[in-house]
Design brief:
The protein has 16 helices and 16 strands. GO terms for molecular function: hydrolase activity.
Amino acid sequence: MKSYFPKDFLWGGAIAANQTEGAWNEDGKGMSVADVAQYRPDLDPKDYASQWHVSPDQIRAAMASTDTTYYPKRHGIDFYHHYKADLALLKGMGLKCLRVSIAWTRLFPKGTEQAPNPKGVQYYHDLFAEMKRDGIEPLVTLSHYEMPLYLVNHYDGWVSRQVVTMFVRFATVCFQEYAQDVHYWLTFNEIDSALRHPFATVGVVEEKYANAHDVKQAIYQALHHQFVASALATKALHDINPQDKIGCMMTKTLAYPLTANPDDQVLAQAYNRNNYFYADVQVRGAYPQYMLNYFEEQHIAIAMAPGDTELLRRYTVDFVSFSYYMSVVKTKDETDMAQVGGNLTTSVKNPYLQTSDWGWQIDPVGLRVALIDIYDRYQKPVFIVENGIGAHDTLTDGQVHDPYRIQYFADHFKQVNLAIKQGVDVMGYTTWGCIDLISAATSQMSKRYGFVYVDLDDLGQGSNRRYLKDSYYWYRDVIKSNGVSLYQEGNTTTATRD
């Protein structure tokens, strides 16, 4: 098998400001929704609904506390102060691209300010300049679960139309300030996650609403405002830097029917179709009819301002990016069937797949299916901007042997190669958490994704030193060979350290 990866393929990694930077109250930064996220050892790590949920009492407690032990995203891995050394490690791996996010509250602490915080602006100037010196292309997410907490408390988050104006101001400053160094942008991280964890994604606090219907109404209204903001941000980027590219970002959910029973087929089809709603609006420029029918059936009324329909139609994104971690199974009758959990939902266990330490079903072939489906649907370049395996790693004598991670990525990379062979235009592949970071859902450090080990535990204790895992050297060889090494004997189980 030959490598079909193009010469300009962006082999990379991905992190987010709220999970790595720390320095949560330094240099004028305001509180974000991430600063409310708690490490909850009393909860089952696989109970994602409870892990993500944030109540008004929890918000008040977080605002009154300066604790960083049980609010671990406040310290992250201290990337804010260690970024030069960390980028040097990623350069040593040969990374061509690094996906990062800009913390909105570093530039606009409350979100309402008319002018940005100079220290926040300068930090990202320094970060992007260092990335360029290291030969690493920035891929920058504007909103990655980091909206200002002030906007949640005073505007009900994205439910308020006013937040659109504030976000576009923030985005425009980013496009203007970083025009020399950043040429690839993403709008909203996993925009579809608004229904799974509305607080982190759109700033909806569920207890503020009378019933489940009103919560859903608020979420869809907030999503509409994000769609409008995406269109306006796309317009702003193309006005300022016409050559630059901006993409949407969704969680690629993928469902298989358990059996050939037509009822199972219909359930899987509906699940997959609903996943496309979010990209449909941003790529095709209009609400799909199936969602308009759903809104009518559910008595959901989306308030649209004059001109919204035209905005969505005119300012669509340049490419489609997505995260992919697992697939699920759908069947009409789940009675007495084994269940597994994941970042998306619980699911009937697929008997053909293994699961990770956190119960996520590992499905490399599903990534190829997803790539082909997305490309065939939209006929725009696609970018895998998150994928990886969270696992328990063991540091022994300064080394981490992680053949399971090497095997995972070897299997997934090969499926991407097959998708490219079948005509899919894939821009690149940024593996999630290329350096260990705080988990988005559970706020754990022990759920490790990286090629670089960070010596911190779930309580923030440790030296914070970095160690290179076996997978670091393996990925370096994959990048250097542009995927050719994937097909050399023994490459999926071993890595040669220098």
